[in-house]
């Protein structure tokens, strides 16, 4: 289902986007030329933006960006909280597979289990969030060492614990930087039987997560 869009809101945002370092102040005529909107439309929209402090107008009728934008700017600089993006994906991977889903990041020569959703089965692979593991073993470890390309799955069978199997895929930021590893783990015998299905789940959910990652900063 297509998302509902509000034309008036989009036009107001278009007016705000007309301002930049080279155009810090704009007249009504200049705003009309920049956006293609009728002056009457601009006057109505700018009046609403002025009420909420997103623009100010001086005695000459010239507009500039208002204090409300400055108030919100530091919040954007803090970056998007990664957990809010990763946690729903982990839950979806866990629900689709029944196994434990984790998200790892690299910290020096170790990998850190940053977020985790434990499996639904009574017998499962259990590891606490915040646990630190070496990079030299395990599927997620190989991903974080840079051993895989985008979309490539790494699989480990009993590398770290003899009874545990895992599969992992890299999560890359829009610019191509490796952000972390999305992993699935469980008892080796049960995991092996469903390995191909687990591969597809990881590929699909990794693509969904990467599509949601911002170009700007993220916070852990």
What's the short version?
The protein has 220 residues and is an alpha+beta fold.
Q: Could you name the CATH class of the largest domain?
A: Alpha Beta
How many DSSP H or I helices?
A: 8
- Supply the number of structural domains: 2
Oligomer: single chain
Structure notes:
The protein is α+β, with helices and mostly antiparallel strands. The chain folds into 2 domains: 7-76, Winged helix-like DNA-binding domain superfamily/Winged helix DNA-binding domain (Arc Repressor Mutant, subunit A); 80-219, GAF domain (Beta-Lactamase, 2-Layer Sandwich). Helix content is 40%, strand content 25%. It has 8 helices and 11 strands. It has helices at 7-17, 28-35, 39-51, 67-77, 82-97, 139-144, 188-193, 195-212; strands at 25-26, 55-57, 63-65, 80-81, 100-107, 110-117, 132-134, 153-157, 164-172, 178-187, 218-219. Strands 7-6-5-10-9-8 form a 6-stranded antiparallel β-sheet. It has a 3-stranded antiparallel β-sheet with strand order 1-3-2. The longest helix is centred in the C-terminal third of the chain and has 18 residues, at 195-212. The protein is elongated. The two termini are 31 Å apart.
């Amino acid at each position: 289902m297509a998302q509902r869009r509000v034309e008036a809101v989009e036009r107001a945002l278009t007016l705000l986007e007309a301002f930049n370092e080279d155009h810090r102040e704009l007249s009504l005529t200049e705003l009309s030329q920049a956006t293609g909107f009728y002056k009457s439309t601009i006057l109505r929209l700018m009046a609403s933006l002025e009420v909420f402090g997103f623009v100010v107008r001086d005695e000459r009728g010239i507009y500039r960006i208002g204090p409300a934008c400055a108030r919100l700017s530091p919040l954007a600089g803090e970056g998007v909280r990664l957990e809010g993006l990763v946690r729903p994906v982990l839950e979806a991977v866990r629900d689709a597979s029944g196994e434990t889903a984790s998200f790892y990041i690299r910290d020096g020569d170790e990998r850190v289990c940053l977020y985790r959703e434990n499996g639904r089965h009574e017998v499962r692979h259990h590891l606490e969030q915040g646990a630190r593991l070496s990079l030299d073993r395990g599927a997620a470890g190989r991903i974080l060492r840079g051993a895989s390309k985008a979309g490539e799955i790494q699989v480990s069978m009993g590398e770290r614990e003899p009874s545990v199997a895992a599969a992992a895929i890299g999560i890359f930021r829009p610019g191509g930087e490796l952000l972390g590893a999305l992993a699935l783990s469980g008892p080796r015998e049960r995991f092996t039987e469903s390995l191909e299905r687990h591969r597809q789940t990881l590929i699909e959910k990794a693509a969904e997560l990467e599509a949601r990652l911002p170009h700007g900063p993220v916070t852990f």
